Amino acid sequence: MALTIADIGKAVLDTEYAVRGPIVARAQELEKSGMEIIYCNIGNPQALAQKPITWNRQLLALCAYPDLAKEAASVFPSDAIAAAKAFISGSKHGIGAYSESKGLKFVRDAVAAFIKNRDGIESDPDSIYLTDGASKGVQAALRMLIAGTNDGIMVPVPQYPLYSATITMFEGRLVGYYLDEEHGWAMSRDLLEDSIETAKKAGIKTKAIVVINPGNPTGSVLAASNIKMVIEFAKDHGLSILADEVYQDNIYKEGASFMSFAKAMAELGEKSVSLFSFHSTSKGFLGECGQRGGYVETRNLPSDVSAQMLKMQSVSLCSNLPGQLATYGMVCPPPAGGPSLPLYRQEKNAILEELKIKAKLLADGLNSIPGFRSNEVAGAMYAFPRFELPKGRTDNEYCMALLEKKGICTVPGSGFGQLPGTAHFRTTILPPRASLEKVVKDVAVFHAEYS
Q1: pTM above threshold 0.70
Q2: Do 168 and 326 meet the contact criterion of CB atoms below 8 Å apart?
Q3: Structural contact between residues 242 and 276, judged by C-beta atoms closer than 8 angstroms
């Protein structure tokens, strides 16, 4: 007898992932029928016309076909050839063989050097695990933390659905804490305390807190004081911290800056709170989503817990090697004085400057629409505007109608979580500028007519 839906476990059936839900499926149907769709639902830069960084693609090409280095010295710059040879030598077998389970040692060394250069603090390569994108690192941490059905994970509201979906699949409990929309989506100690106390009364044992900075879907950037407050809160309640820092290069607000949780913990002298911090090749200015590269750095984990983390990595043998190479390219840009550096800087700065322009364009445009209100897009790749709905309508209905009428694919705010009685949607800032301008104009027309 064939497998039926009745054979599928409840945890799988209950798992939802709004970013690729029914609205996206409908968008694909409409596109096949000939309708032009502007996909604003997902942070997928190269699908929205962002060009790859030359340096990373040269490394990928040279390592995938090492003979190119012999044949095409006139095509590839000398520093790219040298970096590719270093990777092939360090891996011993190139990108076609398994690596050790944590990932190639010399790549982890490079990640540790990157963290030290970024934060001015030491990083242990043996506490770094190379992963298939940041998502796999997040899932590994949550798999270890959720030991029973009453184990809870604090997650921001609104949040990225990776967290709610994974917690559901691992049969844990999501403990939502609201971000303060009125103050740029900041975190509040009072709201954190309310959340954990409510969970405790419900019999939930809260194990960890997730923080996404810069914020997805909010586009916020946390102040250093906010980050240190979270660390003190975690210490007071015996929580681990999962720091999702994949948008650390995406800062647009004047005066704002990224501070890692690792650096904040070092400044506080905090050594009792366990930290998992995640980074990825998919975001920033690289946009290499398809390469599935990333890492998780752990701090303050006992050796027996680290052994369990390694065991989990070993079950999948290792992360994919092209992704490890993409991570190497991310943390090891062209060397100073080399022929590749000018182009690398030009491409990086152009991408980030364009994103900054589009962040302002989108927020200002949405705020010009009667019934809409958007916080400044200070970082990351998204806006999460609040809008007025006619009585009896839902944000799901609104977003589906926006797609059907205008070909704009967004994600309803209910897929991320929002205050009861409010309506939002998430949209990226990634479409080309002309497309984003069209999005703002079409949303204005649609909203004025929607009833």
Answers
A1: yes
A2: no
A3: yes
